[in-house]
Amino acid sequence: MNPANYLYRLQKLDTKKSQVVHELKEIEQKLRNDQILILAQTQNNEVRNNCENTRQHLHQIENQVKAQKIKIEQSESTLYGGNVKNPKELQDIQAEISSFKRQLSHLEDEQLEALIGVEELEKCEKISRENLEFVESQAGSEKKGLIDKMSLLNHEYERLSQEYDAAKQSVPADLFILYVSIRDAKRGIAVTQVSEGACDTCGSPITPGEWQIARTSSEIRYCPSCGRILFAS
Ligand SMILES: [Zn+2]
After folding, report:
1. Burial (Cβ within 10 Å: 0-12, 13-18, ≥19) of residue 187
2. How far is the C-alpha of 193 from the C-alpha of 171, rounded, in Å?
3. Tell me: the pLDDT tens digits for 127-150?
4. What distance in angstroms lies between residue 209's CA and the mean position of ligand 1's atoms?
5. What residue spans of 83-169 are helical by DSSP H?
6. Which candidate, 160, 187, 175, 210, places its Cα nearest to that of 5?
7. Rounded distance from Cα 1 to ligand 1 centre (Å)
8. Residue environment code for 73-95, b if the CB has 16+ CB neighbours within 10 A, otherwise e
9. Of 9, 47, 66, 228, whose Cβ has the fewest other Cβ atoms within 10 Å?
10. 156 alpha carbon to ligand 1 midpoint, in Å?
C-alpha cells in the first residue's frame, strides 16, 4: 500500500482540526464584541440621565411657583388687612402684586414646558428600557448558545487530537516530518486526493501512470503543479 494512505488520514484529521479552531475563533470574537448590547446600554443611560435632569429642573420650578404664590398671598393680606391706609403705599403694594403675578405666569409657563418634557422623556425612557431588556435577554440566550457550542467544539478538538495521535503511530518518523513540512508550506494541505484524472486541490491533470503509482506502489508521488503528495484511492 502507498504510504500516502496513512498521510491522507492525518490530512483529513488536520483539516477537521483546523475547521474546529476556526469556528472556536469566530465564537470568541462574537463573545468579545457584543456591539448591539453596548449600544442599547449607552442609549438607555443617556435617556435616563436626560430624564433625571429634566425632573430636577421641574422640581426647582415647582418650588419657585410655590414661593411666588406665598409672596402674592402675603402682599394681598397686607393690602386687604386694613393696617396700611396710605393710598400711595397701597398703590405700591398693588403694583408689587401685579409684578409678582407676571413673574408667576412666566414660571407657570416654564413649569408646563418642563412637565411636557418630563412626560416625553419618560416615554422614551420606557421604550429604551424595554429595548435594553430585550437585547439583554437575546444576548443572554445567544451567549449561552455560544458557550455551549464552544464546549462541544473543545471536546471535538480533543477527540480529533487523540485520533490524530493514534493515526500518527502508523506513520514512520521521516514521512511524518515530510508531511508536516509540506502541510506548513502549503496552507495546511500536504496530501491531495486524485479524482477524475486531476489533483483535487489545484486541478492539474494527473496522468494514468502517475495515478497508478500513487495508488499501488510504495513510492510517494507529487502533484506536478502544486507539489502536494498524491493520494489515489
Ligand atoms: Zn495539485
Report:
1. exposed
2. 18
3. 999 999 998 888 888 888 999 999
4. 16
5. 87-168
6. 175
7. 21
8. eebeebbeeeeeeeeeeeeebee
9. 66
10. 30
Q: Residue 23 has which C-alpha cell?
A: 469556528
Residue 191 CA to ligand 1 center (angstroms) comes to: 9
Q: Give the mean pLDDT of the chain.
A: 93
Q: Are 17 and 167 in contact (CB under 8 A)?
A: no
Q: Which residue has the cell 408667576?
A: 104
Angle among Cα 172, 176, 182 to the nearest 5 degrees reads: 150
Length of the chain: 233
User: How far is ligand 1, taken at its centre, from the CA of residue 21, in Å?
Assistant: 25
**Tens digits of residue pLDDT in 32-46:** 767 888 889 999 999
